Amino acid sequence: MHTAITIDALKVLDAIDRKGSFAGAAAELFRVPSAISYTVQKLEEDLDIQVYDRSGHKAALTPAGRYLLNEGRALLEAAENLAHTTRQVAQGWETRLRIGFNSLIPAECLFPAIEDFYQLGVPVDVQVVEEVFAGAWDALQSRRVDMIVGADQLSKPAGAFTTRALGEVPFVFAVAASHPLASAPEPLPNSTIAQYPAAVAADTSRSLPPGNAGIFQRQRTLTVSNIDQKIAAQEAGLGVGWLPEPRIREQLAKGTLVAKSVEEARAPISIHLAKHSDDQGKALMWFWDRLSQDSQLTQWARPPRSEQT
């Protein structure tokens, strides 16, 4: 069955949108600008629609063109995943491994394992992707990543997943030393905390229900992109909230953040390695075994309570 929408045409639309111009897309795709223009015009003719409005100084996507681009990006991702998995089956070693990590732990905790992997000399590209809250499981479920480091159990979706416990991340309620709550009597009641904005790391989930742990009803929020930014916002006195204790030990020691006891304590979060049960790529399994025994991770996650002595 013939279709006017080709992978190549979608790549052209994507490149134009990301680069901001036909010329920028041509440079990225190693084509002449006229070839980019021809691809767009051919697509418009075949679909009998106008993808770009050329009435202004600069061509802009029409509503139909924007819809085509947004939906087309899902097809591009699916095509990329198909190519990746096909090569994986043919070669044994994956050509690329995408490791997602929960923002509760820093990216640096993965670096020793990646360095050891490089010593193997195998031609596998490693991509490290940060996710927040349910975004970790969402990325794995949708196969945007091949494995997750630091997946929690609270937002785990249904499906055939294999997990391995890494430990628990404890939390402290922290405020800047200059914040009014820093000198307030303890334990802090919820009604007092709710008077001040909460710093929130935005959940990166695209399809699973997002999380919003630690937010009180009617409390104003300052939303940032990840835990690093949340820590910085709280250290600047712009918000309050729960933070993973291992991530702020230095700030607590210096006194730029102050830990406060509250009426309702927050339980530690159990974090895990996670992957699709049927995925057995060589690079994936190497990292699975290596990270399962990684002493670097013990700096950021204490043993589960059942294993503590």
From TrEMBL:
Residues 5-62 form the HTH lysR-type domain. SUPFAM superfamilies: Periplasmic binding protein-like II, Winged helix' DNA-binding domain. The keyword DNA-binding applies. GO terms for molecular function: DNA-binding transcription factor activity; transcription cis-regulatory region binding. Pfam families: HTH_1, LysR_substrate. The keyword DNA-binding applies. Keywords: DNA-binding, Transcription, Transcription regulation. Belongs to the LysR transcriptional regulatory family. This is DNA-binding transcriptional regulator, LysR family. It comes from Marinobacter persicus.
